[in-house]
């Protein structure tokens, strides 16, 4: 998989923007509440995952660990990437597939709310779904130290310096390689999994949305047939001529991206590429599949209706 690093288009990835990377590293799940602490848990029983062939994270020393927060499960210090299939019943399979990229600021992964729950809901609609557990930046092994590092990031006390385009690409290289490997695996097993290789999309949440955009802009064999950007950065980009249809969902009260403009939407429209944008009045950041009283909960049904409209479920 090393060859994949040489296929990334630096100019395209630079468009994602240093500010977006810093924002995703700051918060990628619901804003931390004082009364909702992280609780260490044993690695939970999980659906059968397939280890991707991108190898272990270079230089990693802290082992993979899990914790619960907001009533959901999170993984951190992921050093080996995996892909977990959620296949629809044979009679329901539509031939469409989606690679799901959870968020977590490249420090944690919201495996339940933005991963398994999304995949199960897609499978129930006849869409084969694959949760990508991509490699993460290392964090302190001890929970107390990890919590403190996250608190410092939330407060801005440990905000990293502005990154150059070259540093952005180097920082995301492992995650982009994991996404590319996921697409390669799904396409290689498309027949066995009853999937049309031309109808494989990708949906990402927060940092996972950033990874989705990076994978899309990188192009080549990993280019998704359609993409979903769920409360990710809306920074403008240079849109490829063959950019896929894009679905975007964001809450107006999102503390990260609710007041940063809609450059990404404008970029897609200027390039005359299909885009659907849902700006919900309320929902905050990280709503995912959490049941909430806000209309942002409806993003999933809207997403399925959108891919249906485009004929991907036909």
From TrEMBL:
Annotated PANTHER family: AB HYDROLASE SUPERFAMILY PROTEIN C4A8.06C, PEPTIDASE S9 PROLYL OLIGOPEPTIDASE CATALYTIC DOMAIN-CONTAINING PROTEIN
Signal peptide: 1-33
Keyword Hydrolase part of the UniProt annotation: yes
Organism, scientific name: Sphingomonas canadensis
Taxonomic superkingdom: Bacteria
Record-given protein name: Alpha/beta hydrolase
Molecular-function annotations in GO: hydrolase activity
Domain BD-FAE-like: 172-220
Pfam families: BD-FAE
